[in-house]
Amino acid sequence: MFDDENAEYLVVVNGEEQYSIWPAAREVPGGWTALGAPRPRKECLDHIESVWTDMRPKSVREALENSGSLIAQGSRMVLSQLVDADELKAMSPEELRNMLASLDDDLIYGEDGDVIEPSVGPEVA
User: What does the pLDDT look like over 33-44, one tens digit per residue?
Assistant: First the structure.
């Protein structure tokens, strides 16, 4: 069905920005959208090869692209325990990186350079 060189096909794409070909004579399956007019199989495959340069699903690409901001969010959550909330909100990414750089192997240094011992919360009975 997908290897007939004489048939017309559609280039189709799904919500994860994954591409495929689909016989033009058949209804496009749910979750897929046809792009452009029917054309020969080779033209469809050539088009897909030219536009689908990153084969990772959209959700994976976005997760990887946003991982830096997720790390920053996690860092901000940790720092929010150490820094006044208003001060933390006002920090630039560079200031945040500098503050994180001052954390060394779970040690926190105060302005005077002395190690600040973490306080232990109340014990739960």
Answer: 999 999 999 999
